[in-house]
Amino acid sequence: MTTPMDPAALRAMLERVTSGSDYLRGKLDRAGVGPKDIAEPGDLARLPFTTKEEIRETPVLEYSAVPAERIVRVHASSGTTGRRTICAYTAQDVEDWTEMVTRCLRYAGVSTEDRVQIAVGYGMWAAGAGFQTGVERLGAMAVPTGPGNTEMQVEMLRELGSTVLWATSSFTVLLAELVAARDLRSELALRIAITGSERWGEATRARIESLLGVRTFDLYGLTELWGGGVGVECDRHDGIHLWTDHFHLEVIDPDTLEPVPAGTPGELVVTTLHKEATPLIRYRTRDLSYVYADPCPCGSPYPRIGRIQGRSDDQIKVRGVIFLPMQVDTVLGEMTGVGPEFQAHVDRDADGRDSLTIRVEADDRGAVGELERRLRERIGLRITVQSVDPGTLPRSERKTQRVFDHRIL
Fold first, then answer.
1. What range defines the domain where residue 235 resides?
2. Where do the TM regions start and end (predicted)?
3. DSSP letters of 177-223?
4. I need a labelling partner for 95 at 20 to 30 A (CA). Which of 138, 256, 304, 374 fits?
């Protein structure tokens, strides 16, 4: 599945890339393809894929398609899956990102009357700075609290009357539970929570909304593709709209690398159309999702993807069966008596047999057996569920680790 593509825009991007980046010019030369070879949408498949490893291992100024004098900012990935990936931005890149973040805010119902508490990382992490420029461009009040320091977060929520919270889902849950424990909800003005930077599902949405009395919006983004804010849910909460006027989207089978039909899950692949400093050519995001075949009833011209189901490089095989954390979150969202937080532990015994244990927080111990049954039906594995007291599993101000593979592979 690919979204509609303008060959002229793609050809113009390749011309900029080949004239500005020795690394990317060499990559295209080795693939035997250049700007002149792009004449119709089907020619996109002639271009080589780009991987995170390539960008990570190539010095940022060597990869960049503009001179260092034009670079006004750099950001880096969180390093969750390995060495940090550094990406550069020109003034136009920052402008485009600001416009996309502002669009996300409008889709989430944020207006100039709102006060947006930005509880995500600043500095090298491509989140806080990008979000703040979007909030300021919209004309809302930016409250740049950054991550962590829950006492200060609650103080600002109360004193400034913040109406929008922008944080990772893990940190939003942590704050929501703190507000509930102190019975502070009536003192807050919050009405919207925008979350992203990690995969989260309906169980987490339900907990946040019930504890804070807000509407939640799932945000999409990755450092290599500007950062958070390249897509967001609309008010229908049925898929994430992507700003494909700035980049082209494909969905491929991560094993065969062939496109899959609309509605079929696969790996998202993006090609930037205007990005100057760190352009992407068929970049394998490793994010697993699907494209909706039909336009959204909200009237948006932008296509939708399903909420991120996991990553193709995070899939774990247990006894020959592929396991994804989203499978657990989906089942938790269908049940009562268990919280949204969980950990998955994969072990191997002395005889070489693998086992999968899911730890959950349970108010109702009787729900454990039902959860085991539903997980076995959904995943196709015999799974052991261990219940712990509510609030026992760790919360994080950034991204929460949920899968622990203890096998020696």
1. 1-313
2. none
3. HHHHHTT-GGG----EEEEESS---HHHHHHHHHHH--EEEEEEEEG
4. 304
Higher pLDDT, 153 or 370: 153
Number of Cβ atoms within 10 Å of the Cβ of 4: 9
User: Residue 76 maps to which CATH number?
Assistant: 3.40.50.12780
Q: Tell whether 332 and 309 lie within a shared domain.
A: no
What are residue 311's DSSP bridge partners? 287
Q: Say whether both 90 and 158 belong to one domain.
A: yes
Helix axes 325-333, 202-212, angle to 10 degrees: 50
pLDDT, tens digit, for every residue of 208-232? 999 999 999 999 999 999 999 999 9
- Tell me the CA end-to-end span of the chain in Å, nearest whole number: 34
- Higher pLDDT residue, 341 or 23? 23
If asked whether residues 308 and 321 sit together in one domain, one would say no
Contacts of 158 (CB under 8 A, 6+ apart): 184, 187, 188
Residue 404 and residue 347: Cα distance in Å, rounded? Answer: 9
Beta bridge partners of 248: 271
